[in-house]
Specification:
The protein is an alpha+beta fold. It is built from ten helices and 16 strands.
C-alpha cells in the first residue's frame, strides 16, 4: 500500500531555435507582468492602504494588453502570465501571514528564468509534450520514466545561468511504503565531516566548492576582464555559471543519496534545528557552511520522511548536544570549536560530533515517547551543578519553519 503524492519529474531538453526564441519572449513577459503587478500593489498599499486581489491584478493585465506600449504581451501564451500573478498573490499571502518577507522585483540580470503552464496551455499525447504557441513537441531527454498512466497537470520550463533548459512535469504518483524498521539515528551536521551519525559513522565532506575553487577563480578573473555589455562578457559569464552548475549538481546528488539512505534505513531520524541564516554571518565559516548545504539536506529529509511514513524529529537549537556527556549526563562548561575530542569527569572520551549525534538521538527518542521536547536544564546559579531533571518544552517533533 502506497501514499498518493504530487511529484515533479525534472528533465533536460534541447529546444529548436524557434522554441528557444518563443520561450525567451515568454520569460521576459512573465518577469514584466510580475514586476508591474508588484509595483501596482506596492503603490496601492503604501499610498492608499488598499490591497489589490488576484482578480484585480488579472483585470489590470487585460488593460495592459490593450495599450500600444504593452501590446506584445498578447503574443505569448496568457497562461504563464496568469500563473505569475498567482505566484505574486501567494507571495503577498505569505507576507501578510508573516511567513515571508515583502516580495521583491524580478531582476533582468537574474540568470534563472522560468514559466509555468497549466493543463490548458500544453498538449500531452503519446509521451510527447507540446507547449502553447508551438507547433512541434519539445526534444526531452527522458532520463527516467514517468509513473505508469501518469499525465502532467502542470509543466514548468526553466533555463539556468549556464544556458541549460529544463522541463518539470508535475504528476500524481504513488510512493510505495517503505519496509518497516525499528532503527533510529541521530544526525549531527558539521563541516569537517558532512554529518556524524549516532552509530559512530562519519560521512566525509567532499567540499565540492573547494575542489573546483581554482577553476571557478580563473573563470571569474576572465569575466572581470571583459567589457560590460559585450558578447565576450556574456560568454565568460556562462563559463562561470557552468562551474557553479557543476558544483551544485554534484552537491545535490550527494545529498539525495545520503538523505535517501537515512530515510530508507531508519524509522526515526533526529536532527537539530540550526539557524543557518545566522551562522552564515560568520565570515570565517560562511563559505564552508554554504558548501555543506545543511538547509538543503534538511529539506530533503522533510519531504522524504513524509513520503515514506518515517518520523523526523527536529530538536531545539539550544539543546547542548556537543557539551552533554552521553555517558553520565554532565554538561561541560565551555567547548570551543577547535576542540574535536574531550574527556568527561567520569572518564568517558568523546568525539565531539559523534557524541552530539548520540545525544540528539536520545533526546529525539524522548520526544517520540512523550510527544514533547526535552533538554537538560543548565547549571543553576545556586548549586553550580547540572540538574538532570528534564523540563518539558514546546513540541519539537514535526517540520518547523526554517
Amino acid at each position: 500500500m502506497g501514499r498518493q503524492v504530487r511529484r515533479a519529474f525534472k528533465f533536460r531538453f534541447y529546444p529548436t531555435g524557434e522554441q528557444a526564441a518563443e520561450l525567451s519572449r515568454t520569460f521576459g513577459c512573465v518577469r514584466l507582468v510580475y514586476n508591474k503587478a508588484l509595483e501596482e500593489r506596492t503603490r496601492a498599499w503604501y499610498g492608499e492602504q488598499r490591497r489589490i486581489s488576484y482578480v484585480q491584478s488579472s483585470a489590470l493585465l487585460t488593460q495592459w494588453k490593450k495599450t500600444q506600449e504593452l501590446a506584445f504581451l498578447a503574443e505569448v501564451s496568457c497562461v504563464p502570465l496568469q500563473q505569475a500573478l498567482r505566484h505574486l498573490q501567494t507571495a503577498f499571502a505569505n507576507f501578510f501571514a508573516k511567513r515571508a518577507a515583502y516580495p521583491r522585483f524580478k531582476s533582468r540580470k537574474r540568470s534563472r528564468c522560468s514559466a509555468e503552464y497549466t493543463r490548458s496551455a500544453f498538449t500531452w499525447r503519446d509521451g510527447r509534450l507540446t507547449l502553447a504557441k508551438m507547433t512541434t513537441p519539445l526534444d526531452i531527454r527522458w532520463s527516467r520514466p514517468l509513473p505508469d498512466g501518469a499525465e502532467p497537470t502542470t509543466v514548468t520550463v526553466s533555463r539556468d545561468g549556464a544556458g541549460r533548459w529544463f522541463v518539470s512535469l508535475l504528476c500524481q504518483d504513488t510512493i510505495p511504503a517503505a519496509p518497516a524498521t525499528e532503527a533510529a539515528v541521530g544526525v549531527d551536521a558539521g563541516i569537517t565531516s558532512l554529518v556524524a551519525l549516532s552509530t559512530g559513522e562519519k560521512i566525509t565532506n567532499p567540499r565540492h566548492e573547494r575542489r573546483d575553487h581554482a577553476r571557478l577563480a580563473e573563470a571569474q578573473r576572465n569575466l572581470a576582464r571583459k567589457a560590460p555589455g559585450s558578447a565576450n562578457r556574456d560568454k565568460a559569464r556562462r563559463k562561470v555559471a557552468r562551474v557553479h552548475a557543476r558544483i551544485a549538481d554534484r552537491r545535490r546528488d550527494l545529498l539525495h543519496k545520503l538523505s535517501s539512505r537515512l530515510v530508507r534505513e531508519n524509522q526515526t531520524v533526529v536532527i537539530e534545528d540550526l539557524a543557518v541564516g545566522n551562522l552564515l554571518k560568520n565570515r570565517t565559516l560562511a563559505r564552508a557552511i554554504s558548501d555543506a548545504a545543511w538547509r538543503e539536506l534538511r529539506f530533503m529529509l522533510e519531504y522524504k520522511c513524509a513520503w515514506y511514513g518515517r518520523d523526523l524529529v527536529v530538536l531545539d537549537r539550544w539543546f547542548p548536544s556537543s557539551k552533554l556527556c552521553a555517558a553520565c549526563g554532565t554538561i561541560r562548561g565551555k567547548l570551543p570549536l577547535d576542540v574535536r575530542e574531550w574527556t568527561c569527569e567520569c572518564g568517558a572520551v568523546h568525539d565531539r560530533d559523534v557524541n552530539a549525534a548520540r545525544n540528539l538521538l536520545a533526546a529525539g527518542l524522548a520526544v517520540t515517547a512523550c510527544g514533547d521536547g526535552v533538554r537538560p536544564q543548565r547549571d543553576t546559579p545556586r548549586t553550580g551543578h547540572s540538574s538532570m531533571k528534564q523540563e518539558t518544552q514546546r513540541a519539537t517533533a514535526g517540520i518547523p519553519h526554517l
